[in-house]
Amino acid sequence: MPKIVKIVATTDWNPILRAELAKPYWQELQRFVHAERSEHQVFPPHDEVFAALHLTPYASVKVLLLGQDPYHGPGQAHGLCFSVRPGVPPPPSLVNIFAELESDLGIAPPDHGYLCHWARQGVLLLNATLTVRARKAGSHQKKGWETFTDEVIRAVSAKRETVVFVLWGAAAGRKKALIDTDRHRIVEAPHPSPLSAHRGFFGSKPFSTINRLLEENGRGPIDWALPPLSDQQTATSH
After folding, report:
1. Which is it for strands 63-67 and 123-127: parallel, antiparallel or unpaired?
2. What is residue 230's predicted lDDT score, i.e. its pLDDT?
3. Which residues of 155-176 are buried (b: 16+ CB within 10 A; e: fewer)?
4. Contact 164, 62 (CB under 8 A)
5. Which tens digits make up the pLDDT trace of 201-223?
6. pTM of the entire predicted model
7. For residue range 81-126, what is the model confidence (pLDDT) as tens digits?
8. How far apart are CA 25 and CA 30, in angstroms?
9. Residues with a known catalytic role
10. What does residue 37 show for φ and ψ, rounded to 5 degrees?
11. Could you tell me if 204 and 100 are in contact, meaning their C-beta atoms sit under 8 angstroms apart?
């Protein structure tokens, strides 16, 4: 458990989120996750739970892309929503994201699903729940993670610079209540999962919309083209 706190402490998120670590819900949450890890396989690994905050400093956040759970298959999750480790085939939702990226900006799907290139440009790839039991989607929901990640969303909403919040699906859409919509911009669409992508995710052109909103508000666009893995640091660099 101390290792998790240490990861938060090594980023500029620490003074913003430090108070959360002293609240009763946080202690209960950490006891729950510790017990789960002692009895089951839990993803992502212990030292990657806060990879999104570690890789995208608060000062750098330009876009917040909100997911739900980490992937619950072996070897997939590494702390960034929708992203998978190098060498792991992109799951169906990410395949659909790449298909829309190609339709929107003409960027061909990469041969990997490792999204750290986006995170390093200021795209906070945040899941609402930061851990999950292997092969059991939603198993760590409503245990306290949402209280913590809601505070992350509120903190980003408090930034003076305009941030684009990307809310895919109904669960993400409900977080709109946490966002100052006078100051920030919201991009919404159905979730990219195979169950809902055909209901409006395809054709929503989120990537060009995000860049247009950033540029309209004096912020540089995101380079959505993922470089080859050979040009990126591996997941162990987190």
Report:
1. parallel
2. 79
3. bbbebeeebbbbbbbebbbebe
4. yes
5. 999 999 999 999 999 999 999 99
6. 0.93
7. 999 999 999 999 999 999 999 999 999 999 999 999 999 999 999 9
8. 9
9. 69
10. -65, -30
11. yes
CB of 167 closer than 8 Å to CB of 66? yes
Considering Cα of 178, then 215, then 127, then 44, what sign does the dihedral take?
A: negative
Write a three-state SS string for the chain. Answer: CHHHHHHHHCCCCHHHHHHHHHCHHHHHHHHHHHHHHHHCCEECCHHHCCHHHHHCCHHHCCEEEEECCCCCCCCCCCCCCCCCCCCCCCCHHHHHHHHHHHHHHCCCCCCCCCCHHHHCCCEEEEECCCCEECCECCCCCCCCHHHHHHHHHHHHHCCCCCCEEEEECHHHHHHHHHCCCCCCEEEEECCCCCCCHHHCCCCCCHHHHHHHHHHHCCCCCCCCCCCCHHHCCCHHHC
